[in-house]
Amino acid sequence: MSSLINSISACVEFSFKGETRSLNTTLNLDEMLAKHIDLASLHHALAVENGIDTYSYLFEVLQEEEIFFSHPQGDAAHYLHDGQFDFAGYVAAHQSDELFAPLQAIASREMGIADLSAHPQLKQALLCAYQLGLEQ
């Protein structure tokens, strides 16, 4: 993952009682992952941020609308296609990077290997050893 803040803008537009509403927010994806927030709860977050009671009919209408994404920053740019954000893909890549960071540190410290991905067999061996340690 890059050192930039990974973020993306989210927007939803809907009409309620003849009034068109447009809700926008910028999501800090790293913060969302750290707090274990997923996109399924994004409608709720948009409502709270915009002062909409989550027990109202207005919120029910909001929940029916699709959220569109734009303006990705950092690694988020790789997962945005035609206004749709592949959050599952983003999460999987983030978790993979978190897993391999300590393994890279071991390879660097113990063997002087700066890029573990250039040594796929060693990378796989370290991964297997790590997973074996988790099982015990």
Fold topology:
Elements: E1 7-16, E2 19-28, H1 29-34, H2 42-49, H3 57-64, E3 68-73, E4 80-81, E5 84-85, H4 87-111, H5 120-135
Antiparallel strand pairs: 1-2, 1-3, 4-5
Fold and architecture overview:
- With 136 residues, the chain is α+β, with helices and mostly antiparallel strands.
- Helices cover 46% and strands 22% of the residues.
- The chain is elongated.
- It starts with 6 loop residues before the first strand and ends with a helix.
The computed structural class is alpha+beta
Mean pLDDT level: 86
Q: What characteristic shape results from the CA principal axes?
A: elongated
Strand residue percentage? 15-25%
Q: Biggest sheet, strands in spatial order? A: 2-1-3
Cα-to-Cα separation, first versus last residue: 30 Å
Largest sheet: 3 strands, antiparallel
Q: Number of helical runs?
A: 5
The low-pLDDT segments are none
Radius of gyration: 20 Å
What is this entry, summarized?
By secondary structure, the protein is of the alpha+beta class.
Summary tags:
single chain, two-stranded antiparallel ribbon, three-stranded antiparallel β-sheet, 136 residues, alpha+beta
